[in-house]
């Protein structure tokens, strides 16, 4: 597999943040134990576990034996499909057309090589502070006919920051709000979460951050620090693990990535501690300990009670955790061979995570911060994020298509 490095900043394997490679049998036992813990939590909630919602890495291995590697097919380099983007956050595809949200407002349409910034009109004004703004975005599965999409955006109410999930419709080049699905998701300046995705079950999933108030993550009455699950109309599905609640999984800090492999396994990235002062307490957090989790219905992923490889009764430790140096994982995407591509901000690279060996390797380096990644029509698309917290180049930020 070639490591793409257009600026000559080759990284050695010694710099990678992967934990030591585990034996396959150990991997399988750990996943099975994770599933058992999640089953107990789901049973306690008196709700059925979704079929196909979680499987072991052994199942992934069976689906990858005959698959060719998308990353290994790369020859090196990329095409810059879009330039001069302003803090891009999420991308979606409608045929050959690409739509990209910008955190400060507007959705960029890339069609036939032309970039157009389209207005987003919401009933509550967009709040742009720190990490808050227009972030998550996903097209309706029937977008070609109904022109519906869903956005996650920050707003303010009585001087306090929140986030909401809104159904919008593209009408004459303008995205107009049609319906508010969920509001009151905790917000602030940091830890906003915001990734939206449709699952193989047809339900709409969303990540939410703890808004730098860690107590949200373990509080089941709060929508912060969670993976949320809802219908396209914003209703709570009857088979959600917690009755009458959008909460699908909890105990997360600032998850910004969701992806399903072909077997139906749901993976989520999560930002670990940042070395910042602890809200309401003394001292500072440790740093690093970024996570890749296998999400199961009703699962409690431990933040802030456990971190890294720590364990506690009723809590699920990360499937993969980095070391003390942060990579800050954001968007993730599954490949046809059931690997997970991971966009990293602090890590300034696109990485590939292998769920079988639990190793993470570099695919693209030297382009600065990476916010999002997608696989479309067999090609890998990457959004840089140097206009937010990085050192912008002359054409940043950009949409890159790897060769």
From TrEMBL:
Keywords: Signal
UniProt-recorded name of the protein: Dehydrogenase
Highest taxon of source: Bacteria
Position of the signal peptide: 1-25
Protein's UniProt keywords contain Signal: yes
Coiled-coil stretches: none
Glucose/Sorbosone dehydrogenase domain span: 85-389
Pfam families tied to this protein: GSDH
Matches recorded under PANTHER family: HEDGEHOG-INTERACTING PROTEIN (PTHR19328), HIPL1 PROTEIN (PTHR19328:SF13)
Phylogenetic placement of the source organism: Bacteria, Bacillati, Bacillota, Bacilli, Bacillales
